[in-house]
Task: inverse folding
């Protein structure tokens, strides 16, 4: 797999015909798009349109959006290769950071709305329940990824080490899926879980296949 | 000087039952205001049933379905003074997997449920097995209004004014034999009316059970209505069980069969996940669900988003009435 670092765009732009992906408004537009779920939830919380149990709705929705953003982030590289649009890579960092943004919101919703920000209770609650522990672990593993997402960190680590570190995202997405699966498991309610499982299997399977082919 | 002291603060505490409930004293003030306004005649009629009026404003008929009135129940513990949940919440946030697993599914999809004609077959260890039509059931005993707390196993709660009568009324009529140790409730599972039954979330039909003494307890309610009207389909029309001291899933909805049996029934949830849902499933803040704590709950529509969840009460606050049913039992083992 080729290392695709967040690029400056300029070099590619000179090689290829100008792409819409390189438009100066592309990133700000994506930023706003990524904030839409947050805006919708914030509006819902303030206008009380999240149904009878708004706390539960917020916790679930932020968890859903974390998984979605992880999948979208992991879809960037396959999409870039399939479509032959290298410029897509410039959106990957922002998408990954939004996955982190939503996981932090997810955790804060749980900690605040469900646990009343009672740290002692939270510290007892998480290890007691495997599904919560797995989710918490996934979030912790995302911290170093978010913390090394800026250009200077990439330079300081060196491309190879940076990339090795960021392969943690594969572990993160699998833990996230396990967290979701476990939450739904007792109710044998696997419809939604199955959709995420298929998407994640495709995204990771594509990478595995490329790795095997490159080695073979 | 000798100052008589009671408790620590020198204040003699009245016992809880002597404190005038807020709803009641507010009612009295309304009454005085009415008198002052000259509406004495109308108000006097209402004053006679002032208990029934105490929460009249909160449980006013939503005007959506046919009226089903009940007189205020005199069964001990049957009328909580907690503020009833808004009808809109109680009728839109439901677990009724026969119509889908999302809380909003039942309200959206239960319109296909045919509640008439409806019969309930009473079978098993009884001297008088019979099949009762819904109209016979409605007339079997006088309708009572009971305001119960409802605690869902998922950690939320509501307060619902039900209309119905004690399950014991029906049980006495069919005369269980000495072999009847448990009562099993079987609910409708018709894929034509209930789209959720096509999915394999649970092993249909939904089955629940009670021990005989639990079923005979006067608080165990056979409910036909709520908020002064017949039950909305999504809440288990036309007839359901309400067992207020147990987690909500024990209260089977849309019942079609009641069987009296010798062996403990295996409920649908126990079959699905025995380590998480036991036969008794009494509300118990000290026994956690494997995946979450049961120590606290969120009261739907009342507790603010950032408010701490309220503590869950033993037997959902009905310990005084039902605690003796479980004397000497290990409730952690018999969860």
Result:
């Amino acid at each position: 797999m080729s290392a695709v670092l967040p690029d400056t765009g300029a070099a590619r732009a000179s090689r290829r015909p100008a792409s819409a992906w390189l438009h100066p408004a592309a990133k700000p537009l994506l930023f706003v798009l990524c904030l839409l779920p947050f805006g919708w939830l914030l509006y819902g919380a303030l206008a009380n349109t999240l149904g009878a149990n708004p706390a539960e709705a917020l916790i679930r929705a932020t968890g859903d959006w974390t998984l979605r953003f992880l999948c979208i982030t992991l879809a960037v590289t396959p999409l870039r290769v399939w479509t032959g649009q290298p410029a897509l890579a410039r959106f990957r960092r922002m998408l990954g950071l939004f996955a982190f943004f939503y996981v932090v919101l997810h955790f804060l919703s749980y900690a605040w709305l469900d646990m009343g920000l009672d740290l002692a209770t939270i510290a007892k609650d998480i290890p007691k329940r495997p599904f919560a522990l797995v989710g918490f672990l996934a979030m912790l593993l995302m911290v170093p990824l978010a913390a090394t997402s800026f250009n200077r960190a990439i330079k300081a680590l060196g491309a190879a080490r940076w990339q090795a570190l960021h392969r943690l995202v594969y572990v993160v997405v699998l833990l996230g899926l396990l967290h979701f699966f476990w939450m739904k498991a007792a109710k044998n309610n696997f419809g939604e879980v199955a959709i995420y499982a298929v998407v994640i299997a495709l995204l990771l399977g594509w990478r595995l296949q490329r790795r095997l082919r490159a080695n073979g | 000087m000798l100052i008589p002291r009671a408790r620590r603060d020198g204040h003699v505490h009245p016992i809880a039952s002597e404190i005038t409930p807020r709803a009641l004293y507010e009612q009295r003030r309304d009454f005085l205001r009415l008198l002052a306004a000259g509406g004495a005649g109308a108000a006097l009629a209402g004053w006679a049933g002032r208990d029934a009026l105490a929460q009249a404003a909160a449980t006013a008929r939503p005007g959506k379905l046919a009226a089903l009135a009940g007189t205020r129940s005199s069964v001990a513990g049957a009328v909580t003074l907690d503020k009833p949940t808004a009808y809109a919440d109680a009728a839109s946030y439901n677990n009724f997997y026969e119509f889908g697993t999302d809380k909003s599914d039942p309200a959206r999809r239960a319109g296909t449920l045919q509640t008439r004609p409806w019969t309930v077959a009473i079978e098993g260890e009884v001297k008088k097995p019979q099949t009762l039509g819904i109209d016979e059931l409605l007339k079997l005993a006088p309708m009572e209004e009971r305001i119960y707390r409802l605690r869902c196993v998922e950690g939320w709660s509501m307060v619902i004014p039900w209309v119905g009568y004690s399950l014991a009324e029906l049980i006495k009529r069919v005369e269980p034999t000495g072999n009847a140790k448990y009562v099993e409730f079987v609910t409708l599972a018709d894929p034509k009316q209930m789209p959720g039954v096509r999915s394999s979330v649970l092993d249909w039909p939904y089955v629940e059970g009670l021990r005989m003494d639990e079923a005979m307890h006067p608080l165990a309610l056979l409910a036909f209505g709520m908020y002064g009207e017949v039950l909305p389909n999504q809440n288990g029309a036309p007839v359901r069980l309400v067992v207020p001291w147990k987690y909500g899933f024990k209260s089977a909805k849309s019942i079609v069969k009641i069987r009296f049996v010798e062996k403990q029934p295996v409920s649908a949830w126990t079959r699905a996940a025995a380590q998480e849902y036991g036969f008794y499933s009494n509300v118990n803040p000290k026994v956690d669900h494997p995946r979450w704590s049961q120590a606290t709950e969120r009261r739907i529509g009342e507790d603010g988003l950032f408010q701490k969840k309220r503590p869950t009460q033993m037997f959902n606050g009905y310990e005084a009435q039902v605690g003796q049913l479980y004397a000497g039992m290990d409730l952690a083992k018999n969860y």
Remarks:
- Chain B has ten helices and 13 strands.
- The interface with chain A takes residues 89, 92-93, 101, 103-104, 156, 199-202, 272-273, 276, 288, 290-293, 298, 300-301, 305-309 of chain B (CB under 8 Å).
